[in-house]
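Closing statement on the zinc ion sub-project.
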Amino acid sequence: MGGRKKRRKLILKPKPKIPKMFECPRCGKVAVTVEIKNGVASVKCGSCGLSDEFEVPPIFDAANAYAKFLDRYLEGKIEISKRVTTDSSEAEGESGSLPEELNE
Ligand SMILES: [Zn+2]
């Protein structure tokens, strides 16, 4: 009888991790998450709240969906719920403070 041991696979493949956070075209923070479910991509920025949903082909991954999200944003197809205040002084103060909630 063979005293053969089953060869164990000891090769650890480092999984190429697809970054799950992308840079937001609106606020510039790397806080955009992409989730694809049933052919629909849900994209949301955890920082400024920019969000969008659109259908994607099955071959799309998060990076593809993010690219489409960027296109849609640049084309003005994304409805922004929060109103951008026209008060420039207020906007200046807002960009000056950096929330530290995204520490890694
Ligand atoms: Zn944002």
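The first strand starts at residue 21 and ends at 23. With this model delivered, the sub-project is considered complete and its resources will be redirected to Aim 3.
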